[in-house]
Amino acid sequence: MQLFEVEHIGRRRLGLLRDILLNRYPQVDAGQLAVDCGVKSDWSMASRDENGSMQAVLRVMHTLRRGAVPDIALQLGDRAQITDSGLLGYAVLTAPTVLQAARMTSHALSSSNYLLRNKIVVKEQYASSVFSVTSRARPHREMLMEMSMLAVWRCIQSIVPSGRASTPAEVHFSHPAPDYAARYEELFGCPVYFNRAHDVLITPSTLIHQRIPSGNTALIRSLSTELRELLGDGYRGSGIAARVRRALVENPQSCAFSLTGTAAQLNMHPRSLRRYLADQGHSFREVCQEARMALAKQYLSNTQMPVKAIALQLGYRHSNNFTRAFAEYFGETPEAARRREFADQDASANPAR
To answer: Is the alpha carbon torsion for 189, 193, 199, 204 positive or negative?
Structure first.
C-alpha cells in the first residue's frame, strides 16, 4: 500500500470524524478541535508527518477519547466502507473469493507504511485474522484495534452475500475491557473477549471461502468510476470499445477477460461483439489487453499487491504468463516497472535527497 493509498484512507477517516461530530456531538467545537490537532479547519490534511492523515486521525481520536466521546474509535470503525481504501478496495471487491481478498489486503498492510499489520490463519472450521501494530503506533494501539478490527469486519460484511447478517465467531482484544465494553458485542454481533494474548477476528471458514458476488453492488460502480478517471478517456463515451473497457473494469469476474464473458455482460452474441469492434477498427484481444495492462499499471503503481495477486485479478492462471504479457506490452517486467515507479514517487516526494 503506497503513501497514496494510506493518505486516501486517512482523509476518508478525517471526513468521517467530522461527520460524526457534526451530526452526533454538536457540543464539540469541531473547527477548534481540528486546529488543536494539526488539521485544517475544513478537516482536510495539513500535517507533514509520515502517514500524515492517519496520524491526524489518531490525534483527534485521542483527544475525543479522553473527553466527550470515549468510544469514538468504535464509532469510526462502524462507519468504514470498502471505498475508503481506493484502488485496494476495488481489488477486494473484484477478487474471486473472500480469502483471496483477505490475503491481498493482509499483504498490502504488511508491505506498506500503514500503522497496522495483519496475518491470516485458515484452519478446518475457522479462519483467524491476527492484528498487530507497528512500533510507531504502540501508544495508540487500543484505539487502532477498536477502529481497525471493526472496520475490517464492516468491509467483509459489504462483500459477502449475507451482508450485515454475517457475524464473526469470536473477537479477541489484548487490552482490558473499557467502560463501554457492551458496545463491542452490540457492533460485532458475537462474543468479545478482553485481556487475551492477541487481537484476533475469528470467522467461520465457510465465510472466508465464499465467492464475492460480481457486478451487483453500487460500491463497484463507485470505485470503478474513480478508477476510470485514472485510466483516461478510453473508458468514456458510447463507442463499442469504450463499452467493452468499462465492462472489463466494472465486472472483471463476470467478463473473465474473455470475448464470451464480455459479450454476455453486454447482452450481445460473441460474433456480434467481434463484428462491432471490427467495424470500429478494433479487435477484442487488443481492447482486452489494453484494459488489463492499464489495470496492471495502476495496481503496480498504487498498491503493494504482489505480482502473483495482480495476475490472478487480471485473469491470468499463472503469474509467468502475466509477466510475459506485461513485458511484451511495456518493454519491462512488472517488478522493474514497480521499482521505477516507486523510485519516481520517492524522488517527487523528497526532491532534496
So the answer is: negative
Q: Do 218-347 and 3-208 fall under one CATH topology?
A: no
Phi, psi of 107 (to 5 degrees): -65, -40
Spans of all domains in the chain? 3-208, 218-347
CA of 254: how far to CAs of 124, 258, 265, 314, in Å?
A: 29, 9, 7, 12
Give the residue from 224, 217, 66 showing the smallest Cα distance to 155: 217
- For 218-347, which CATH class? mainly alpha
Q: Please tell me the CATH code under which domain 3-208 is placed.
A: 3.90.1520
Contact by Cβ (8 Å): 92, 52: no
Strands of the sheet with 170-172, listed across from one edge: 116-122, 126-133, 199-204, 170-172, 192-193
Predicted confidence (pLDDT) per residue in 274-325, tens digit: 999 999 999 999 999 999 999 999 889 888 888 988 998 999 989 999 999 9
Cβ atoms of residues 247 and 292 within 8 Å: no
CA pair distance 325, 310, nearest whole angstrom: 13
pTM of the model: 0.82
The alpha helices in the chain, defined as continuous H runs, are 3-24, 30-36, 52-66, 72-78, 87-93, 98-110, 141-159, 181-188, 205-208, 218-231, 240-250, 252-255, 259-265, 270-279, 284-302, 307-313, 319-330, 334-349
